[in-house]
Each structure stands twice: as structure tokens, then as C-alpha cells.
Specification:
Blueprint lengths: L4 H4 L2 H9 L3 E2 L7 E6 L2 E8 L4 E3 L12 H8 L3 E5 L13
Parallel strand pairs: 4-5
Antiparallel strand pairs: 1-2, 2-3, 3-5
């Protein structure tokens, strides 16, 4: 099954993952949360409404690089800024 980054954080997809037994915690008021998949926690920030806009950081960075962009963009979009595996607050994982 192919899943785009926008789909990953859509309500429909999150509901499907809950039904499949993937833990999705309730978002905090600040818009920060963790998504647990295969025993690994992935941190993300989510704010705003509208079309989903995913902000991906580069190697050796984290979602922190988007801190000044998230609020202005959230006025027009559903902004998602994840920490990719091994970066920021996301689990480092094996290997």
C-alpha cells in the first residue's frame, strides 16, 4: 500500500491506523504529539486547518528548524512537521 506524507497525517488515515492497532495518542493543546508505529515513537508538530502541508527537515536537523514558519503557515494549512527517525524527539530505533 502506497501512503503519501499528506495521507500519513490525514484524519482518515489516522483512523485506519487506529483500527489496525497502531497507537496514535491524543494531540496535546500545543499541537505536539507522538505517533507509535512498530514500537517506535515518532514526534511531530501539527497545527492549523485546510490542505495538509508537510514540512520535512534535512539530515542532522529536526522539526525545530520550522519553528518560525509553522504558525504563519497554520493560518492557511494543516501543517505537519515530523522529526524523522533518529532525529529530534523521535526514537533512534535499531540499526
Amino acid at each position: 500500500m502506497h501512503v503519501s506524507m499528506g495521507d500519513l497525517f490525514s484524519e482518515h488515515y489516522l483512523n485506519q491506523t487506529r483500527e489496525a492497532g497502531v497507537h496514535v495518542s491524543t494531540p496535546t493543546p500545543a499541537g505536539e504529539d507522538f505517533l507509535a508505529v512498530a514500537g517506535q515513537k515518532a514526534y511531530f508538530i501539527r497545527k492549523g486547518r485546510g490542505k495538509t502541508l508537510v514540512l520535512l527537515h534535512g539530515i542532522l536537523a529536526s522539526s525545530f528548524v520550522w519553528r518560525r514558519n509553522i504558525d504563519p503557515l497554520a493560518r492557511h494549512f494543516d501543517v505537519v512537521a515530523p522529526d524523522i527517525k533518529g532525529h529530534g524527539r523521535s526514537d533512534k530505533g535499531g540499526r
